[in-house]
Amino acid sequence: MKMEISFPGGVAVNASYGGFLIKTDQPQEDGGTNQAPSPFSLFLASIGTCTGFYVASFCQKHNIPTDNIKLIADFQRNPSTHMVETITIDIQVPKDFPDQYKNAVIKAADVCTVKRHLEHPPMISLLVTKH
Prior knowledge:
29% of the residues lie in helices and 26% in strands. It contains three helices and five strands; from the N terminus they run E-E-E-H-E-E-H-H. It has helices spanning 39-61, 102-109, 113-119, and strands at 4-9, 12-17, 20-24, 70-77, 84-92. The strands form two sheets. A three-stranded antiparallel β-sheet has the order 1-2-3, with no helix packed on it. It has a two-stranded antiparallel sheet with strand order 4-5. The longest helix is centred in the middle third of the chain and has 23 residues, at 39-61. It is elongated.
């Protein structure tokens, strides 16, 4: 798996991966134009959307409509390091959601690939090559 990163101008950085162009930028206060989410915002969104994928898949398998289901992700930062220390994802279901599936939907959401990678992070190596 390879991803190509490019620099379209300013502090914007794009990634070409899997046939998609993923655009990022920075807020104006950080020198960007705020034309796209920051890379860290996409990282956080990947946690929520990955979890959402597994919730949706579970509901589809059990013929549970997802119209009134939503996930709320809450990111708690350490005040001194500013690093995210705790992530809570609240799977909000309607009152008629079957009680017998509450633990099962949590178990399904727990399979999120992004979450699992955070629990066992890959080693990241950096290098410089001339082309």
